[in-house]
Design brief:
The protein is built from eight helices and no strands. It is mainly α. Helix 1 packs antiparallel against helix 2 and helix 1 crosses helix 5. The longest helix has 19 residues. It starts with a helix and ends with a helix.
């Protein structure tokens, strides 16, 4: 997908309040600025070559702070993390399971299940309820 297509796509699945969406937009733009500077022909290839997957929770340290080339604005680490969430939900980048487990994304995991695998989420909830 082109950058414009990515931005349109991810905000169709991101959800949230208007203020939260503004923060996510800045973060998405910063992450895309960073990924565009990485080698690869797709967003996923750029994610892999960036070293982010191997960096675990410290992946955000790889993203330069400051003003993005495409209107990303000045972003703090929290904004950059928020920007990755729509990219995950939209399956623009698909980190490894080890990377996902290293994050502190409890709400993101729930939202990812709702968007990516709603049937899997229901099965997980049924299984959790059966264990109680």
């Amino acid at each position: 997908m082109s950058r414009t297509e990515v931005e349109t796509h991810v905000f169709g699945v991101a959800g949230g309040t208007q203020d939260a969406m503004k923060v996510k937009l800045v973060g998405v733009r910063r992450v895309l600025d960073w990924l565009e500077a990485q080698p690869g022909g797709s967003w996923q290839q750029r994610w892999r070559s960036s070293g982010a997957d191997a960096s675990g929770r410290d992946w955000v340290d790889l993203v330069p702070l400051g003003t993005g080339r495409h209107g990303g604005g000045t972003a703090k680490p929290g904004t950059i993390r928020a920007g990755l969430v729509p990219l995950l939900l939209g399956q623009v980048v698909c980190p490894s399971m080890a990377w996902l487990l290293a994050q502190n994304f409890s709400q993101t995991l729930r939202r990812a299940f709702e968007v990516i695998d709603p049937d899997g989420l229901m099965a997980l909830r049924r299984a959790a309820g059966a264990e109680q």
